[in-house]
Amino acid sequence: xxxxxxxxxxxxxxxxxxxxxxxLRILKRTGISGVPVLKEGELVGIITRxxxxxxxxxxxxxxxxxxxxxxxxxxxxxxxAAQLLVRNNxxxxxxxxxxxxxxxxxxxxxxxxxxxxxxxxxxxxxxxSRTYALWEETPLTLVxxxxxxxxxxxxxxxxxxxxxxxxxxxxxxxxxxxxxxGIEVSDFxxxxxxxxxxxxxxRDLHTxxxxxxxxxxxxxxxxxxxxxxxxxxxxxxxxxECALKMRRxxxxxxxxxxxxxxxxxxxxxRELIKVLLPERQDLRKS
Length: 286
What we know:
Layout: H1 3-6, E1 14-15, H2 20-30, E2 34-39, E3 42-48, H3 49-54, H4 61-64, E4 66-67, H5 78-88, E5 92-97, E6 100-106, H6 107-115, E7 134-135, H7 140-150, E8 154-158, E9 164-169, H8 170-175, E10 177-187, H9 199-204, E11 207-217, H10 239-249, E12 253-257, E13 263-268, H11 269-272
Domain CBS: 7-63, 65-121, 127-185, 226-283
GO biological process, one term: methionine biosynthetic process
InterPro entries: CBS_dom, CBS_dom_sf, Diverse_CBS-Domain
């Protein structure tokens, strides 16, 4: 199977120069996590949800984006795509043919491929990651900071008795964010007593005011922003079965639970696509 078989050809893009708020609206409306950035029709970068959340005070797309993104050709095998995504710790690959952007291939597209491969290997011992969880009363602003520090794309949320009650992801943070505008004042005065008509006096008393715009998370408990009725899987669930659940629910991760609905780990899509790596052929035997 090749990249061409699974890539998306109707690609949502943004152009520079452009505005950060336009990208935020696109991500909120579509639910996608990142878009290619073009300049005069040529691919120059990628901008993601993480970029917006980590650089909340930046507005210029050229400074927000990751320049010179890793790309792939449409006739490449999906195993090569999996290698590039895993090695570079990224979630999407622009597909370039004859110098032009013809599509994009994401981790979700590879999950779609795995769902069709009927791999019966259990996820236990191969793909389940250790994780941590947060209490459902944790303020959303603190959740955002914890996700930024940890690098996790999603965090399970627990009730007081320790049972799973929901999950929060970057997508949910973007949905519950707002743009706050204001005025910032920079005062360069040094309190000089020089004659007011000297150049030094004019320079030193100079004050600059300029507009600012920041992304702010709403001041609410995480339980009001999280996804409830979480789709979870047991430790003996099979690889392709889990991939199919991810594809149908359009999620990037699945909590892994025991018979008492106690959280034991997380299954992330970026871990599941490792089954496509050449060195993991043994796990693809059904």
